[in-house]
Design brief:
The chain is mainly alpha-helical and 366 residues long. The protein folds into two domains: 3-87, STAS domain (Transcription Regulator spoIIAA, 2-Layer Sandwich); 109-365, no CATH class. It has twelve helices and five strands. The protein has helices spanning 14-27, 47-62, 74-87, 100-134, 141-151, 156-178, 187-225, 228-234, 239-278, 282-292, 295-321, 326-365; strands at residues 3-7, 11-12, 34-38, 44-45, 66-70. The protein has a three-stranded parallel sheet with strand order 1-3-5. A two-stranded parallel ribbon has the order 2-4. The model is unreliable at 90-94 (pLDDT under 50).
């Protein structure tokens, strides 16, 4: 450690302060060094001189050196006491890269906190959707009707169109392979099995997540940003009862209806290609469709619809209530909600496939 000493001029102002900073630069203080300013001969000091003294302190802090002073008295001592908080600048901290264990622990802590928030939301939603109304604690039936109209009636056309086009595409691709063997009629089997088990539920869920899930997140996020959520809580209203429960019950009723409509649309889309392009007679096509229909496949599709409905509402509400950062945060959380919806749609579908085809079928075989 080296101590450098500088004598301050009789008057510390704009010009002499700049010169003092230049002298400090020329000393090239290293880490751990001390620069001592001697004010014994300094009789006056103004604000600009004080600013240069603060600049010297910041420069030394950047170099991990220390600034000290002595000999100050009278007006100079009073002025230094005034600017002393600026002179005691904390040493610049260098960013230290996190280790792999620290990063894993930080992420685990973050996700655990988010999971706990989601768990509390689920408990509140279950209570105010099922238990609360049965105990006579009220339910917003007017808002529920509005949600049914918004989530269901206004989604009929886009959902029908998407499933119809998907059925048309699946029929085209299937026919290109099966027709080579003269088995074009079995395209009808592939269409109804695919749409009752998987495609209608998944395509409808994707449409609903992009439309309704995003709308739920944006609505609640905007209310959170504008402090309407806090206002509801301040008035003693439960957010889950007031906003979430009507959405859950509405989508639980709407989603199976949309999935059923998606099944019909997909089957019709496949029939259009089978009848017009492959040349199969309509009565033969629909007869084969009915023969391949299975009650178990339809039930499986409807159970998926119920799971997708609950997941879409809860994910949308969860992200909407966690928004931060104003309007930009609303956009980010809306995008996050849609991405999470699609991810969980795949996860739920994998769980159904595992349970139905590897657990139930195996138990029935033995």
């Amino acid at each position: 450690m080296t101590e450098h000493r500088l004598e301050c001029p009789p008057s510390l102002d704009q010009e002499t302060g700049r010169a003092l900073l230049d002298q400090a630069h020329r000393l090239h203080p290293a880490k751990g060094d001390v620069l001592l300013l001697d004010f014994s001969n300094t009789g006056s000091m103004d604000s600009r001189g004080g600013a240069w003294m603060v600049a010297i302190a910041q420069e030394l802090a950047h170099r991990h050196a220390e600034l000290r002073w002595e000999g100050h008295q009278g007006e100079v001592a009073n002025f230094i006491d005034l600017i002393e908080p600026g002179l005691e600048t904390a040493e610049t901290k260098h960013h230290r890269e996190e280790g792999i264990l620290e990063e894993i622990g930080g992420r685990a802590y973050k996700y655990a906190g988010e999971f706990w928030e989601f768990f509390n939301l689920v408990i509140d939603a279950i209570y105010w959707t099922i238990v609360g109304p049965l105990e006579g604690r009220g339910f917003r039936w007017g808002l529920w009707i509005d949600e049914v109209y918004e989530m269901g009636v206004r989604a009929v056309r886009i959902n029908f169109l998407m499933n119809f086009l998907l059925g048309l595409i699946i029929a085209m691709l299937s026919a290109a392979q099966i027709a080579k063997f003269g088995l074009g009629i079995y395209v009808a089997d592939a269409i109804i099995i695919g749409f009752t088990r998987e495609l209608a539920a998944i395509m409808t869920a994707i449409v609903v997540s992009a439309r309704t899930g995003a709308a739920i997140t944006a609505e609640l996020a905007t209310m959170k940003v504008q402090e309407e959520i806090d206002a509801l809580r301040g008035m003693g209203l439960n957010v889950a009862q007031f906003l979430i429960a009507p959405k859950i019950l509405a989508l639980l009723i709407v989603m199976p209806c949309l999935v059923a409509l998606g099944m019909i649309a997909g089957i019709l889309g496949g029939a259009v290609w089978g009848i017009l392009a492959i040349g199969i007679r309509p009565e033969n096509w629909f007869h084969e469709t009915l023969l391949a229909a299975s009650q178990g496949d339809i039930i499986q599709g409807m159970l998926k619809a119920l799971c997708f409905a609950i997941m879409i509402v809860l994910v949308g509400c969860h992200n909407g209530l966690r928004v931060t950062g104003g309007s930009r945060g609303v956009g980010l959380m809306t995008t996050r909600a849609v991405v999470m919806d699609i991810f969980f749609i795949i996860v739920i579908d994998i769980i159904f496939a595992t349970v139905v085809y590897y657990i139930l079928d195996s138990s029935m075989t033995f």
